[in-house]
Amino acid sequence: MRIDVLTLFPEMFSGVFGTSILGKAAEKGIVDFHVTNFREYSNNKHGTVDDTPYGGGGGMVLKAEPIFGAVEAVTGEAKPRVVLMCPQGKRYNQKLAEEFAREEHLVFICGHYEGYDERIREYLVTDEVSIGDYVLTGGELAAMVIIDSVVRLQPGALGNELSAVTDSFSTGLLEHPHYTRPAEFRGWKVPDILMSGHHANIERWRLKESLRRTIERRPDLLDQIEMTKEIKQLLEELRQEKEQGEA
Ligand code: SAM
Q1: E strands along the chain, which residues?
Q2: Is 192 one of the annotated active-site residues of the chain?
Q3: Is 118 designated active site?
Q4: Which tens digits make up the pLDDT trace of 56-100?
Q5: CATH of the structural domain 184-246, one choice from 3.40.50.1240, 1.10.8.60, 1.10.10.10, 1.10.1270.20
Q6: 123-141: pLDDT as tens digits
Q7: Is 39 an annotated catalytic residue?
Q8: Ligand 1 pocket, residue 114 CB under 6 Å
Q9: Cα of 67 to ligand 1 centre, how many Å?
Q10: Domain coordinates of the chain in residue numbers?
């Protein structure tokens, strides 16, 4: 997979792209990162990339020429998805991470200042994406969040392949609790079932705890999962436990 980032602050990416899972994925050739300063594509000798808005008002607007120039230089004849980081965009989630992870090439545009010339949205980008309902100073941190979540889904990027499959949201539910040694810490014990060695019972317990956690924290997710016979049964058990607890 090739990932291009267009930014005015390329230095922000060296730590993230060179460290941990992302750094290793690049070393193994699973992902190829390219960071471009779109100031290089400014059409004047001062390297200007922004200008005052037509119609007046505060803030500076990113000009169309440098962004179109940079995107066209990194894409050539290819037509990859060009993702504009933008608080007004589609809200990012695991489903979109999985969709992006299937692409061979992605281009991220990181904004700064007040906004973008509207023609960038209309005629250049394929996706506008927000990482949440808050405003950052620039798109760099948002692009890093997205790229991290996409790269870890690439085959071979994670040490333990299973962990991406069972992560929260990948299954449609929040992940079950985890425990490790010691079996007892300050009087708090690990649930017996996890040490029973009975794999089927452990899997059932994990699914049930996953459901319990999802009901408590993100009940909205339950509307989107497939209601298997086992899930229906576990939900019924949880309902009965709640009733007994309240009685
Ligand atoms: N005036 C813009 C608005 O109201 O939509 C906000 C501009 S913001 C200060 C500057 C840049 O930060 C944006 O162009 C975008 O690239 C990035 N940004 C800010 N918040 C973001 C978010 N929640 N998700 C993705 N990118 C964001």
Answers
A1: 2-7, 32-37, 50-51, 61-62, 81-91, 105-109, 115-116, 127-130, 184-185, 188-189
A2: no
A3: no
A4: 998 999 999 999 999 999 999 999 999 999 999 999 999 999 999
A5: 1.10.1270.20
A6: 999 999 999 999 999 999 9
A7: no
A8: yes
A9: 16
A10: 2-151, 184-246
Residue 117 Cα, ligand 1 centroid: separation in angstroms? 13
Q: How far is the CA of 218 from the centre of ligand 1 (A)?
A: 26
Class for the domain spanning 2-151:
alpha beta
User: How much distance in Å is there from the Cα of 87 to the middle of ligand 1?
Assistant: 5
Instruction: Give the list of residues 6+ apart from residue 16 with CB closer than 8 angstroms, or none.
Output: 22, 144, 147, 148
Can 152 be counted among the known catalytic residues? yes
Write out pLDDT tens, residues 18-66: 999 999 999 999 999 999 999 999 999 999 999 999 999 989 999 999 9
Q: Which of 85, 110, 145, 149 best tests ligand 1's pocket when mutated (most atoms within 8 Å of CB)? A: 85
Tokens, residue 126: 């394929």
